[in-house]
Amino acid sequence: NAGVTQTPKFRILKIGQSMTLQCAQDMNHNYMYWYRQDPGMGLKLIYYSVGAGITDKGEVPNGYNVSRSTTEDFPLRLELAAPSQTSVYFCASRHWDKRGEKLFFGSGTQLSVL
Amino acid sequence: QQPVQSPQAVILREGEDAVINCSSSKALYSVHWYRQKHGEAPVFLMILLKGGEQKGHEKISASFNEKKQQSSLYLTASQLSYSGTYFCGTETNAGKSTFGDGTTLTVKP
């Protein structure tokens, strides 16, 4: 299993540009998440999904959109990028079994908006 | 509303113990703990569900007091590899986590 795969690892955008951050997992997890992390801060939940076709807003959804057409993929779309969206973005998926629950994180995407 | 972590920073010598606390003003479904090293993704340590359970992971364990909506992470006989920033994440219902701002732990030789 590759786990949670995020692309790209780094990206520089100009103000007003748009882009999609890709996230894929091959563990058949239903729950997937997008977080952003600003320097020296904790993780802020942007959007999450409890299964294909179902998404919901987190704490900081403004300026972002998501879709979940398959269990594997959970892309994050930035429309009209702004400097305030400069951050590190992490995707994660969640697994349950009778031993408990566990979250798996991707390696992150460092985004700069200039 | 995000949980509050304390202390903000801890400096230890190898072999010493540390406790990191996480408290919420809301009724919680679960508490998660993570460790993040600089420039890396957070690494999941453990999750505690309501019911006041205590879980262990090598020399790192945690408790969850459902009545007080508090969780504590216990690091015993700390090693250099324990250095990093520890975050707690809380859920008021399954699937929607809120994270604290982290506790930076530095273990010195």
Question: Can you give a write-up of this model?
Answer:
The complex is a heterodimer of chains A (about 110) and B (about 110). Chain A is built from no helices and eleven strands. Chain A has strands at about 5, 10-15, 20-25, 30-35, 45-50, 55, 65, 75-80, 85-95, 100-105, 110-114. In chain A, strands 2, 4, 5, 6, 9, 10 and 11 form a seven-stranded mixed β-sheet that branches. Chain A has a four-stranded antiparallel β-sheet with strand order 1-3-8-7, with no helix packed on it. Chain A is globular and about 45 Å long. With about 110 residues, chain B is an all-beta fold. Chain B is about 0% helix and about 55% strand. In chain B, strands 2, 4, 5, 9, 10 and 11 form a six-stranded mixed β-sheet that branches. Chain B has a five-stranded antiparallel β-sheet with strand order 1-3-8-7-6, with no helix packed on it. In chain B, strand 7 (about 60-65) and strand 8 (about 70-75) form a beta hairpin. At the A-B interface, strand 4, strand 5 and strand 10 of A face strand 4, strand 5 and strand 10 of B.
Keywords summarizing the entry:
heterodimer; A: 114 residues; mainly beta; four-stranded antiparallel β-sheet; 0% helix; B: 109 residues; five-stranded antiparallel β-sheet; 11 strands
Summarize the topology.
The complex is a heterodimer of chains A (114) and B (109).
Chain A: E1 4-7, E2 10-13, E3 19-25, E4 31-37, E5 43-51, E6 54-57, E7 64-66, E8 76-78, E9 87-97, E10 100-105, E11 109-113
Parallel strand pairs in A: 2-11
Antiparallel strand pairs in A: 1-3, 3-8, 4-5, 4-9, 5-6, 7-8, 9-10, 9-11
Chain B: E1 4-6, E2 9-13, E3 18-23, E4 30-36, E5 43-49, E6 54-57, E7 60-65, E8 70-75, E9 84-91, E10 97-99, E11 103-108
Parallel strand pairs in B: 2-11
Antiparallel strand pairs in B: 1-3, 3-8, 4-5, 4-9, 6-7, 7-8, 9-10, 9-11
